């Protein structure tokens, strides 16, 4: 894929500058003088938006020393170093995301997806016996580093895979597991049954948080095969399994013939950017191209969102959300709904329309909206108020469809009520203060003791703060 000739002259140098800065930060944080494990290659850095995904390989002794810090005192976790890296990261203005200034500081948005891709799975890591041993060693290293997502290929030794997943469950619960499988080098088409079984394998016997299957096309008809297999797997679980749970699926087909799979894929689709001089994989689309195709194929339904309250002329929520929709190429809109009572709102055209997507709820309606919500989250129940309403529509013929109510949108949807106030309190506090301290007993054991949080106030925000403290 050639660079877009219509892009500004600074685009490519700016990308190179971003990558250079990131590499320098990584060398500073991760001590490049230390040797790499055998088979390992230098870190691969990929610039993405809004997260930066980093794949790293370093020996275990390095992580042990870094986790303890230079003076021997332990850091909180690998996330501590990640936080120090992300708070000094800068995002520059790009053609597809017009930020108001040329430099914007982004804090605590860096995610680490840790991958060791073997030659058998479209990568370059050796897949002989010694190489697989080294792969599992590096995957354990990723767990010890508290990476955000650990990519575990489903094709390898079941015993070693089981030991790795047991270790992840018992000691590293904050790391999410992605089960993956890549079909490469095949000359015969993959059947729907085979692709569906690959999704089942990538579930890692119920221990994966998401499953990723990547196929290689043989014919033009293979472009949607991975998506069809993903839906078939979900249907199989819903119909036959009482133990397995539905997990997110990533379904992709490589090359130009597989571009439709990227359009059909519903989550975590890898994208490129117009400013980059090349694509990471054949057939990749930019986010703008991807969204344009989804909208043209009516895979995304335009929705109307609102902020519900009274005397809310001061609110800048419409400006914020509409700018975000525009930047993400989403066909939605966001307006104000200023009503004295909730009853006026639920009787209005917006709420009863089949284009209603949800609402942000502010004073004085956070409690009064509850009777009109179908399902409440645990936080909304505990706090006793709702600040977020999300509308989910049901397809005709589905189990949740109410026959005979085609003309009434309120009968064809489920409204979910949530309270996210506590998250805005919990996240910054969890990064600034310890959630527990340990006291060492005479017999060598430790006892965890919790701290005390002072809350000033008794309103809805105070209840959210109390819920955050409880968490």
From TrEMBL:
CDD domains: DHQase_I. InterPro entries: Aldolase_TIM, Aminoacid_DH-like_N_sf, DHquinase_I, Shikimate_DH-bd_N, Shikimate_DH_fam. One of its GO terms (biological process) is shikimate metabolic process. GO terms for molecular function: 3-dehydroquinate dehydratase activity; shikimate 3-dehydrogenase (NADP+) activity. Residues 77-89 have a biased composition (Basic and acidic residues). Pfam families: DHquinase_I (PF01487), Shikimate_dh_N (PF08501). Residues 307-389 form the Shikimate dehydrogenase substrate binding N-terminal domain. Residues 65-89 are annotated as: Disordered. It comes from the Eukaryota. This is Shikimate dehydrogenase substrate binding N-terminal domain-containing protein. It comes from Proboscia inermis.
